[in-house]
Write a structure and sequence with these properties.
The protein is α/β, with parallel strands linked by helices and 489 residues long. It has helices at residues 3-6, 23-26, 39-46, 71-79, 83-91, 97-103, 125-137, 162-173, 190-193, 202-214, 231-237, 266-274, 301-312, 333-341, 410-414, 444-447, 452-471, 479-488; strands at residues 154-158, 177-181, 218-220, 240-243, 249-250, 263-265, 293-297, 317-322, 345-348, 350-357, 363-376, 382-386, 392-395, 398-401, 405-406, 439-441. The protein has 3 domains: 8-137, Orthogonal Bundle (Fumarate Reductase Iron-sulfur Protein, Chain B, domain 2), CATH 1.10.1060; 154-248 and 407-488, FAD/NAD(P)-binding domain (3-Layer(bba) Sandwich); 250-405, 3-Layer(bba) Sandwich (FAD/NAD(P)-binding domain), CATH 3.50.50.60. Helices cover 33% and strands 16% of the residues. The strands form 4 sheets. Strands 3-2-1-4-16 form a 5-stranded parallel beta sheet, with helices on both faces. A 5-stranded parallel beta sheet has the order 6-14-7-8-9. A hairpin with a 5-residue loop joins strand 10 and strand 11 (363-376). The longest helix is centred in the C-terminal third of the chain and has 20 residues, at 452-471. The chain starts with a helix and ends with a helix. The chain binds flavin-adenine dinucleotide (FAD) and iron/sulfur cluster (SF4) (2 copies). Residues 49-52, 60-61, 71-72, 75, 114-116, 123, 125 line the site of one iron/sulfur cluster.
Amino acid sequence: MPEEEKKPKKLVPKKYPMPEQDPKERIHNFNEVPMGQDAQTAIAEAQRCLQCKRGPNRKVCMDGCPVEIEIPAFIKKVQEGDFAEAIKIIRQKQNLPAVCGRVCPYENQCEGFCIVGKKNEPVGIGRLERFLADWERNQPLQGKIDVPPPTGKKVAVVGGGPAGLTVAGDLAKLGHKVTVFEALQYCGGVLVYGIPEFRLPKAIVYSEVDYIKRSGVEILNDYVIGKLDTVDELLKDYDAVFVGTGAGLPDWTNLPGENLNGIMSANEFLTRVNLMKAFKFPDYDTPVRVGERVVTIGGGNVAMDCARTSLRLGCKESVILYRRSDAELPARREEVHHAQQEGVRFELLAAPVKFIADDCGNVKQVEAIRMQLGEPDASGRRRPIKIEGSNFLIDAQTVLIAIGQSPNPLVPMTTPDLKTTKEGTIAVDEAGRTSKKGVFAGGDIASGAATVILAMGDGKRAARAMHKYLTEDSSWPAPEVFEKLSCEM
Ligand code: FAD
Ligand code: SF4
Ligand code: SF4
């Protein structure tokens, strides 16, 4: 072998950049911010991968992926320029690659385990996943997806968010007849009603849902379980039920003045913008008037989405009010960075005390107080402590409350023997089984508000357990197991 061929390739220390819309322009539109990579860049990025082997004492990228994608195998195919084979490998485990390539917190998941990332920037696994899903979407549309012969078993999935869609896609691939019951007019859950268009275009979610439909899944929209039918009624027609109804119940501050005009939950605000297309007023008849100043309370992804959406709706100043410091902001770093680039003002180490009205009952100011950090609390983060006498005022015509969401209570309320925890989540064992035989649950309704990929990981585990339940072993844990689980959590 010639000497130069034996030399190891020099590692490119940084990820290849992804072009983005200029912040000055993008705050005037709802188009996607990162614009994707071309084939040449994707191949160059893939060549940064060392094709590491997993070992009992060696964790690699795959150990950080909750849906168990064979990451080195798909990256190898990208290195070879075989994109069709690469996306096939991803699709074996992952039902929503175009979504996860955009919103998965990969910095803490797969990329957090990447060996290259120990000394350099990790391989851009999320970007490669996005590239492949986008490449696939631009190929001529394939027809029905091949599935095995029908098993004769029927499954009902309640809720068409990432958890429910994962269960539906995985069970359809195993030959079961799956029907998804979705309360809203579109499937996708938070992916359609919560995450804004500039982070995740809705057309992409619809195309992923279409892929799942092409594997034979039936989707019934505008179908609220707990109103039209109950889980008990579903069990008469279906062999098993999966509940993936999410955590869509907004948490409130309960501070004085919270019911003033102009104060709303992040959920209501984002739903009006995303689902009812408030940003396309007057083409759509549901405007959201935000005024000149918007204050968003909270520091997670939801808060960043509210603050950035407000700018795009035309406010002059968008402020994030968060009670801890920059280091504790729970939002993804990329989202914080994008918000900062767009001019969102971060009022950190500050918490609201009350909301102040004008003469007509509209909010006009938020009274806030400065905080300092004390010892770590139960969450492991340092506890914010008020600095007495440090109160100050911020003008606001709109206040958005983005401090968290709780589990949707309708299904637990209408299914009497479904055990819940004190937080209102459905109690499940490690396989996603609930206290009711034949009923499984996962995603935010079981874990509390979390992430897309963790909801999908739950869905994957539950689908595996449901397949086993439907085909080989229909035994069920004793009631005491769930009694204990509901008390522990
Ligand atoms: P959901 O996505 O909530 O879906 C539940 C579905 O069930 C919904 O479609 C709902 O309409 C339906 N449903 C509810 N009740 C019923 C009923 N009774 N009958 C029938 N259907 C019902 N995570 C990330 O990983 N990255 C991000 O960048 C990110 N950003 C976010 C931004 C926002 C604004 C929000 C709100 C969340 C964000 N998350 C993010 C969190 C993530 O979206 C959720 O963890 C994930 O969607 C949970 O999936 P799920 O399937 O459990 O529930
Ligand atoms: Fe990484 Fe998320 Fe893709 Fe898994 S799904 S490989 S964790 S980006
Ligand atoms: Fe490639 Fe990183 Fe995975 Fe190693 S850990 S195989 S370098 S992506």
